[in-house]
Design goal:
Order of helices and strands: EHEEEEEHEHHEHHHHEEEEHEEHHHHH
CATH topology: Metallo-beta-lactamase, Chain A
Shape: globular
Oligomer: single chain
Number of domains: 1
Number of strands: 14
Radius of gyration: 21 Å
Structural class: alpha/beta
Number of helices: 14
Strand content: 15-25%
CATH superfamily: Ribonuclease Z/Hydroxyacylglutathione hydrolase-like
């Protein structure tokens, strides 16, 4: 089991409650793991848990805030209310900053790790309000541009689109669910403006003219979305992982607003293996609680993915010509197959079976097992 950075945050997350503020480091140096006597020094890193629609550890999202001598950097500013962003987002952030001798006017950089509403939702409006630079990953911005072109463009670019006939589904079962998926695609939360800075894997924010006292480096960690970014601070040994790896749940995969190509599960496992460089770092996830011992959670997460791949491999070994629908009916689902047939998650589940079948046919599982043995 990974080790929580803060026992209080850990207990709140397990109870499904919104955790209190967490100071990761501050003026006095070292990891605080507490909100007691917050420092008003010029270099602090805080984690704010922001409420969002959801249940359990998914009823809040973490926003990371750095207070530096040159300004304030906000990573993933949260899911704003469509009716009142001032009350839901701006006022709480300003209150938090003023309690630490700063203000919302000092926000100079807004970073979005990926294009989901709980992470990027308030990014555009916050940058517009404060005049801050909006920073988005190059690959994720490509997904955003696809989404902006509308449902038809997004569907046309979907290599793993679920076609009822091609997957072997009985007539009339998937069609209503697919139509529902198309209807609910509402990308209201995407930034209206063009990002000021687009970053690539390996880019250092200090080289791009951003905060010199917050030396983050971008790490492309695709899978959850095609352009998902994590960030590392090599000096403080911190990994801001967003939704790539979390301590309580496993992330959904292949959830880009616009697909760019490639197998998201394959990309995810490659990125998970790559993170071994940061096994000694403290992890700030998008949900759950901050933790250490990244290696343990990497292996747990990889095993979760490999277990499904092994299951698909075993089913295919009996009959390699089985349809995706037949495979899906035989794998293990938390809801059971009958439950899945009634679930809104069925389309997503079928998509992942398409991906897993491709992975098994390519022999990728064997590589994964070597990487995580």
């Amino acid at each position: 089991m990974n080790t929580p950075l803060s026992e209080a945050q850990y207990q709140s997350a397990l109870a499904g409650e919104t955790p209190a503020l967490l100071r990761v480091y501050g003026h006095h140096g070292g990891y605080a793991g507490t909100t007691a006597n917050p420092s008003k020094g010029r270099d602090e890193l805080w984690v704010r848990a922001l409420d969002m629609p959801g249940r359990g550890s998914m009823n809040f999202v973490y926003s990371t805030v750095h207070l530096g001598k040159d300004g304030v950097t906000v990573i993933d500013p949260g899911w704003p209310s469509r009716k009142d962003i001032q009350t839901s987002t701006f006022d709480p952030l300003d209150t938090f900053l003023r309690e630490r001798g700063r203000s919302i006017e000092e926000v100079t950089t807004v970073i979005a790790t990926h294009a989901h509403p709980d992470h990027i939702g308030a990014a555009g409006p916050l940058a517009e309000l404060t005049g801050a630079r909006l920073v988005v990953g190059v690959e994720e911005n490509k997904s955003i541009e696809i989404a902006r072109k509308g449902k038809d463009a997004a569907n046309a670019n979907e290599h793993y689109a679920v076609n009822p006939r091609e997957v072997g589904a009985p007539e009339g079962v998937l069609e209503p669910m697919l139509e529902e998926v198309r209807q609910v695609r509402d990308h209201w939360y995407l930034p209206k403006q063009t990002p000021d800075i687009l970053i690539n894997d390996g880019d250092k924010l200090t080289d791009l003219g951003l905060s010199e006292d917050f030396p983050l480096e971008a790490v492309h960690t695709p899978g959850h979305t095609d352009g998902h970014l994590s960030f590392v601070d090599r000096e403080q040994k911190i990994l801001i992982a967003a939704d790539h790896i979390m301590p309580i749940i496993f992330p959904g995969l292949g959830l880009s607003v616009g697909m760019l190509g490639g197998n998201p599960i394959s990309q995810y496992m490659e990125a998970m293996h790559r993170l071994r460089e940061f096994d000694g770092y403290t992890v700030i996830p998008g949900h759950g609680y901050c933790f250490t011992d990244l290696r343990t959670r990497r292996y747990e997460t990889a095993e979760h993915v490999m277990k499904r791949a092994r299951e698909v491999r075993a089913i295919l070994s009996d009959d390699p010509q089985q349809s995706v629908w037949e495979i899906a009916s035989k794998v293990t689902w938390s809801l059971g197959w009958e439950g899945m047939l009634k679930s809104r998650m069925l389309v997503s589940g079928i998509r992942q079976i398409i991906m897993y079948r491709e992975i098994v046919e390519r022999g990728e599982l064997e590589t994964w097992e070597r990487n995580f043995e």
